[in-house]
Amino acid sequence: MKDMMIGIMASAFFAVTFILNRSMEVAGGSWFWSSSLRFFSMLPLLFLLVLFRKNVKPLWAEILRKPLQWMLWSFVGFVMFYAPLTYSAAYGPGWLIAGTWQLTIVAGTLLSVLFYETVQTKDGPIKVRKKIPLTSLMVSVFILVGIVILQIPNAQSLSGKEVLLGIGPVLVAAFAFPLGNRKMMEVCDGRIDTFQRVLGMTIVSMPFWMVISLIGFIKVGLPPTSQVSQSIIVGVSSGVIATTLLFFATNNVRHHPGKLAAVEATQSMQVIFVIVGEMLVLSIPAPSSMAIFGVAIIIIGMALHSYMSYRLNKVSENTAVRAS
To answer: Which residues pair with 125 in a beta bridge?
Structure first.
């Protein structure tokens, strides 16, 4: 339950990304700068935080253990996640991007089969492929139904181009983010904390962001001051606070597919935060009765995930008591 609450807090800070990315695009900013500036602004903040905790040296040692894996999964988890999101903001409103992004709660559940867990047998510990937690998957799909209902009233006014370019890249991001996050948890295996892992992924992905910013400079020149300031806000809110909170929560439940799916499903709350934020910041109209019905389904789905997580904890506690 605690990790789900942390996930919901993360979703509120993540919502800033969708609102301000759309705001920057409407104002004429380039997605090249929106994406790269976020990570440029994250780097010094995270570095100072980890330096203050005297954890920089262990991080370097961890990166040098498996540099190619760090490079690969940082690219997947950060670059293939955020570059498509900012690109999509040029073609669709924030609510559309945030709503489509919620496919990540199903993607994360489906990705379970790509990972292994250690199981004790009479012949000793063996690694077996994890199974898809079907109950968690059903609840996640239920939440997605609510998200689809939430989107219907506004989606009818979109052109084919907005749907294709506003949704397509987000589908890539929806799978890339949980895959990169989970693979990095597997690579690190608890040897470093969440702040170190986020900093390490940011550092390792820097060459990619430099290339993206160089392309942006060639195409559109330097970013306007307003885009720089809004990107810094996104970097602090979404890149540092939200990412750290979510990574911390998922790391706590990384060995329990059902609980992990429940924490990742908390990101569905972003849709609600984005709608409220766009109403306040971008003056979009209030949601219709159908949209409110969709919100109700999302909340019910979150409650179901919370109940399931509670039941899993109880089962684990009872098992531990019997074993002792």
So the answer is: 120
pLDDT tens-digit map of 234-284: 888 887 888 888 888 888 887 776 677 677 777 777 777 887 887 887 777
Tokens of 145: 């139904």
* Tokens 């920057």, located at residue: 24
Please state which of the ranges 14-18, 50-54, 84-88, 92-96 shows the lowest mean pLDDT: 92-96
Task: Find where tokens 């976020």 sit.
Answer: 38
Which residues is 121 bridged to in the sheet?
Answer: 124
Please give the Cα distance from 9 to 200 (Å, whole number): 23
Residue showing tokens 């907005």: 162
What residues make up the domain containing 243? 2-323
Q: Which strand (E) or helix (H) includes residue 120?
A: strand 116-121
- Tokens standing for 37? 């500036």
Structure tokens at 283: 């003056």
| Inter-residue contact 174 to 103 (CB < 8 Å) | yes
Q: Tell me how many domains the chain contains.
A: 1
CB atoms under 10 Å from CB of 207, counted, come to 12
- Supply the pLDDT for residue 219: 93
Return the pLDDT at 312. Answer: 61
Yes or no: say if 195 and 239 are a contact pair by the CB < 8 Å rule: no
CB 255 within 8 A of CB 316: no
60 Cβ neighbours under 8 A, 6+ residues apart? none
Place of tokens 């060459």: 207
